[in-house]
Amino acid sequence: QEHPKSVIVIFGATGDLAKRKLFPSIYHLVQNEKIGKEFAVVGVGRRPWTNDEFRHNVSDSIQTSIKESKDLDDFTSHFHYHPFDVTNPSSYLELNDLLTKLDSTYQTEGNRIFYLAMAPEFFGTIAKNLKKEGLTATKGWSRLVIEKPFGHDLPSAQTLNQEIREAFNEDQIYRIDHYLGKEMVQNIEVIRFANALFEPLWNNRYISNIQVTSSEVLGVEDRGRYYENSGALRDMFQNHMLQMVALLAMEPPIKLTTDEVRSEKVKVLRALRAVSEDEVSDYFVRGQYASGQLDNKQLIGYTEENNVDKKSQTETYVAGKLLIDNFRWAGVPFYIRTGKRMAAKSTQIVVQFKDIPMNLYYKKGENVPPNLLVINIQPDEGITLQLNVKKDGDAGDSKPVKLDLSNNFQDGINTPEAYEKLLYDCMRGDATNFTHWDEVSLSWSFVDPISDAWKKGKAALAAYPSGSMGPKESDEMLEADGNQWWPVN
Ligand code: BG6
């Protein structure tokens, strides 16, 4: 197995993401021998840190997140810090000198990853300057990794995209959606396309509806300033949730190549039925957490959080009903919900199959429960299949049972974290699990009328108690279709 070689430049290296996710991921990649000795990491930030301070921070981050931490000194010796001013050209020239030097020390063959993990207002400036000051002109490859948010609506995303495209080609740009790095999100494709049992039924003849839930227990924490301008729609729905829908609904790709997979996902997003501003309240529910209780702890409401407007109208919960107007999915609702301060941390997909044509086991007004395929993404990973079997002793009566494949197919305890997989993919030049510009733009086109309608007050903001599963309006939306949310695990 050949090790990819690269210098990884992290903009925002003193920040939270670098500390919580990126450093431990790189460490894992080295420990798991996915990358060898030919790598260096350059931390770039405004703070005037020394190499030692930076290495100390890296080593801290690894010790906090990983219990076993061997060879740490050797590992952190690959890390270098460069104090930096994003708007100053000479900062870039100095950085370039450092990268050239490290390239020869670590034999990284001129390969460079520029990872933007910082305030999005600088994404465009940095990308342009990297090219202008010659940092992308090496004998190896240069790639740009870019964290969300990718704009806050279609026009701002287009502007940002034009800026970065002045410096990087589409195939050099790796837009991160960390949900695409999750083991069970990557498993959607395999469950669908490697099983004779599911794919023939995966359409509007046999599926009644599909539900995607991503609920969090945490509130807005210390991110009030960001979240006030984002809300659940932009923070979770536009990216993570729509990406899962695309994977669930896409046609089988001809091959598993980046272009083929992405183009099938794009087709799903193109087939999403647009919701006009006036229809938004028929298809979407927005909610905001009020005070409440969870595990005997009293929790404050969203408007009492730090850096949040006392009269904030920002949604911390969104539920939507999506329709995909194509041959496979016509008439099948995709119900999506995500929110903060809910009863459980869970990301789960439920595929509800249609009832059988004639029900021999109908009793006392109760239908036989439908077959459900549940894909558990987190915290537990696995799939369960709800079937009906004979009720013990009672002839002519049935009961639901669950075939539970949780944990059974894990290869080991060390399933790599999303960021680890994505970083490795980027080093190998595999962009399949990153979002293409067409996906980003179509997602914003779908989402913009919804946030516009909300901004104009066209739908009420429903309060829900912290620690609950969201506002009752969301349940009512499904009830109106004769459906219900299935409980999360
Ligand atoms: C991020 C959002 O993209 O995803 C956060 O900005 C959210 O608000 C997080 O908490 C959820 O990710 P995960 O992996 O914990 O489900």
TrEMBL record:
InterPro entries, per the entry: G6P_DH (IPR001282), G6P_DH_AS (IPR019796), G6P_DH_C (IPR022675), G6P_DH_NAD-bd (IPR022674), NAD(P)-bd_dom_sf (IPR036291)
Plastid listed as a keyword: no
Catalytic residues, chain numbering: H240 (proton acceptor)
Residues of the Glucose-6-phosphate dehydrogenase NAD-binding domain: 9-187
Gene3D superfamilies to which the protein is assigned, alphabetical: Dihydrodipicolinate Reductase, domain 2, NAD(P)-binding Rossmann-like Domain
Glucose-6-phosphate dehydrogenase C-terminal domain: residues covered: 190-486
Pathway membership: Carbohydrate degradation; pentose phosphate pathway; D-ribulose 5-phosphate from D-glucose 6-phosphate (oxidative stage): step 1/3
One Pfam family per UniProt: G6PD_N
Amino acids binding substrate: H178, K182, E216, D235, K340, K345
Family: Belongs to the glucose-6-phosphate dehydrogenase family.
Record-given protein name: Glucose-6-phosphate 1-dehydrogenase
The organism of origin for this protein: Metabacillus rhizosphaerae
